[in-house]
Batch of 4 targets.
Target 1
Amino acid sequence: MSASANLALPFIEGGELLPDVTLNETLRLIDTLVQLAIVDRDLNAPPGSPGEGQRWIVAASPGPTGAWAGHGNDVAAWQDGGWLFCVPQVGWFAYVIDEGALVAWNGTAWVSALAILSTLQNLALLGVGTTADSTNPLSVKVNNALWVAKTIAEGGDGNLRYKMSKESAAKTLSLLFQDNFSGRAEVGLTGDDDFHFKVSADGSSWLDAITIDRATAKLAANQGFTNPTTTRAQLYAAPFDALAFNGMQVDGNGDVSQANGTTQVTLSSDTETYVTDTFLAAYKNAGAVVKARQLAAASFPAALLCYSNAVELKATTALSSLANGDYARHVALIEGYRIARLGWGASGAQPLAYAFQYYSPRSATIFIKLSNSDRSRCYYDEKAVVIGWNWVTGTVAGDTSGTWNTTSGIGLRLEVFSAGKAASPATAGS
């Protein structure tokens, strides 16, 4: 007897004596395989009281027994008081009622129906744990989500990168963080191609807190700081934090003074002496007595806001005259690691900006010197100061010559001369 190619449905042959028998057999097979809803797929032996027309997938392991022996993975249907078995073909789908799962036969096993699909394209809506709609065509309601990079062994490159693209600069591409579906924070390219950090108290009024310029990478704090005074003090006074490392500040307050504390140190002529852990002082004169110490900023004749301490350099005896080569100066030594990123001593050297607070008892001119460790490369500048505290700033072009230490040891010397007598060693600003 011949049968159909896919479902093996028997054909009625010409001149067949009992065609109704063949037709009924075909109808039973159709009834078994069409709209294939499976009661269970975990049994390896027939159930005790099967219902008419009910269907099972026979478990292949452990090996089937009883009337199901030899029919592992087959579809078993109870028809007219007996078992009807159908051998699955690749691509058959079945709905397993007790699991609520859609499975498919891949040629060797019944697997999740989606597992045999290699592509799933152009879906209009997809909801995971929730219902998607036209506003949110991809909607997911879960407590955790995991994305894992495809390894090299699996044919990938081991990397994982999210790629999101907007239509034009004026459009928005962002991550929006909500509280009960009301926006509270947003990061991304919001209305231009700069990177923005925005926040909102109510989901409707937004403040652009931080912007990073796409061309220069410079950061703008658009709303300022909660406490500008405290922030400024932290920026310029933090002795050991990462910001001080990156900005090359050297204990901006002179707060750390482990050896001397606040004791006034009597200096030896022409000898650099540590006053605090990061500031040295020195002078040269045959008859003067010069002392230095850590002193509370509030103890100077004019208090300095936002600073707790400063390094005082003071002559305690009157100076009748200055000889050629006499001086008084503050010194800060900056480690090579801190200046390495400037790339000095080679092409492409980056400029350096310096700034410090300086107290002067009279209007005068101070002399600033920046040099490498052996002082073979030097930058000089002169700054006018007035009585009281002075905010002294300047910029040095990147030095493409000489040797600048970029590891441990001295990388850069900063010297501020308060007094001196000598022919200027170079033109100011050179």
Target 2
Amino acid sequence: MLKHWKGYKLHLIGYNYCYLSLKSTVVGPSVCGGVGYGIRPVVAALPSWFRFAQCMRRYRDTRLAFPHLANAGKYATTFFVVIFSTLHSIYKGSTSSATSHCTRFTYMGYNVNVAVVSVALKELVHYRMSQKK
């Protein structure tokens, strides 16, 4: 029974939601797989939101800044990655004017920079936590 759940992807929740809300028999990228539908960025950010809220709660309870605020910052960078990745995906397909071209590459640059900062912060927190033990 668990063998079937092993390969289940979290982003498929968006397709299931689309299928049930539209009552459509055809559910795929052309119907509701795009970022504009809105469920995929939310589903992508949910696990980090839960961990962020957990870290903030632990900080409120213990008032220890290092492990809890550092971990909260680590998970907060995921929100920016999801936001700029979504904006880049929205503007990636538009070829209407030079403004959209500039906007597309601006969001791509933001996406790359935020992803690099996110990875660097995650590695730094991981390194500091391993030194603490």
Target 3
Amino acid sequence: MANWKKVSKKSTGPEAEADSIVMILAGPSERVNAWFTALQMDSRFRINTFSTDPQDLETKLGYNPEGILLDSSIFAGPESLMNFLTKVQCAVYIIFQRDISEAFKKKIRALPAVKGIYLEDINLAQVSGRIYSEVMAMRNQMPAFQTSKRAKKSEGMIGGLRVITVWSRSGGTGKSTVACALALEAAQRGIKTLLVGLSVPDISIPTFLNLKTTPNLSGWLASQTFEEGIQHSIQKVGSLDVLVGLQDGVREDEMTLAPEEPASINQLVINATYGGYSVVILDTPVSGVYINAISASNTMVLVAQPMLDQALICAEAYRMAFKRLRDLHRIGVGNAFVVLNRFQSGLLSSDEWHEAADAYTRAMGVGHFPPVAGVIPETHEVALAANAGRSVLTAGKDFSASIHRLGDCLYGSGGPGSFKKDEERSFKLGPIRFRRGILKTD
């Protein structure tokens, strides 16, 4: 961890999340990897997806980006580039690998979408502020575009790539069950989702989803590309793609490499983006690679049980992530979600549990602990479903309803089978709606 680069911290939280702009990075894989590394810690930008060829890039215009950073070398020539640019409505910043004629520059600059032309490379540290300002200005001038984006979100879609680390600092909390359920929930909403197991050995995901132990992450360690290392190692559960974790510890150390290393978890997430995933869920172990998983993520789900010791353990995990490791990841405090799993009568209520965790984080100088985003009841049918090779979402109405509500927090409300809000039994504080001590987002 000592050799990881530290970066200046940008503003985080709900306000930063709301004001971030959605970008597509397009160009040769080496170039877009470098761009992503430069932008991933900047909360002003949300990288929607990558593209390395023109046909794929044109298809991904359907993701409604607000800006495109484009290396023109992926196009066969000026004619195909011009043809593409005439179809784009968002801001485009183009890098040419060699000098171009003034006549062609003039022709390119005349296109409404083109906001900047650069030769050989772009210094993002210098121009990121300009890109952000220009795209925000376009957003403010195009209310119809904003309405369209909100409409898509209300249909269960999310803006940008959401990389979720599902984590707990103690075993036996049901973390892997929650990770599998959230992945199935996202896929059921029509969101292209990849679930990645990072435990070694990864027993839970194959068991819960009735999958084989191979192929698995060893394929990625052998070949660090989407086509060879990820696509060929994926197993499917309906529309959900799953990358099962390693089955022995022989190559476990390779998963703890620094973000810039080819086999790192960060590079795994970057390469997964070539598959067009909108959600990547990392089932993160208690120890080992958890720092690397947090570094690769922009969202965290902390799983705990409703007991006093679990409140303190979970609060310490939050302190570690947002104090000790704060310069190593891009997770805003507004993107940290807390889940109480296996609730049953006689244990702490969500309010009592949260009060204990909040007191700990405030005493440790971290500020307030996040509200509880979901309470999942103890459901014996979860184990029965896993043993029978069925989806955990079939494990009773109470369990599936809890996961669905948590999915609304993470992916946006309005997906298939959405639950109506009970306005009479809730109250609203800013963008957050509270009901029975449980956080909801509008």
Target 4
Amino acid sequence: MTQALDFLATVLGAEVLYEIGPIRAEDNWMAANLGVAADAVIERLVMVRIGRHGPALELFEFAHPDTDRHPPAPSAVGGQHLAFYVEDIDAGVEDLRQHGIIALGEPKRVTDGPQAGLAWVHFMAPWGQQFELVSYPTGIAAYGNREPAVWAPGSEVSEPDDMRSGDDGRLLDTDDETATEPA
């Protein structure tokens, strides 16, 4: 966790919002709610914000004898990566390199098809987690005429006309009045 927090702060400008732990359960709570061994312990749960107005990420550090300390390969079932938007892909890659982070190849620029306008490059965190920088300052072709508009970094998105909040804060789909809990 210390290595991840240092990386996120130094390379991505993260700020710790809060930290709690250790968290233990005497029953089957960990297995039932988090899908881990019932006797696993969350040594540290840290909430960070990436950049001044960026997303909040919740980081868990588990302790258990069966814990694999290596992330799964991105191609494995359960493998994943996290992408961060940058306005300038080349400046983003240069910033990674200045921090000693190795990009997996050079930025790829898509010029045709539904992804036209997208530039991306993957990179690895020091502990083996895969990340990606993405950039599309002029937009992505497939998003051009969508209604409602697809959210893009720096844009303000209003609630679609067919969605509104009920008095209890739940979202109502006015097409069928189905209520859902907010995320």
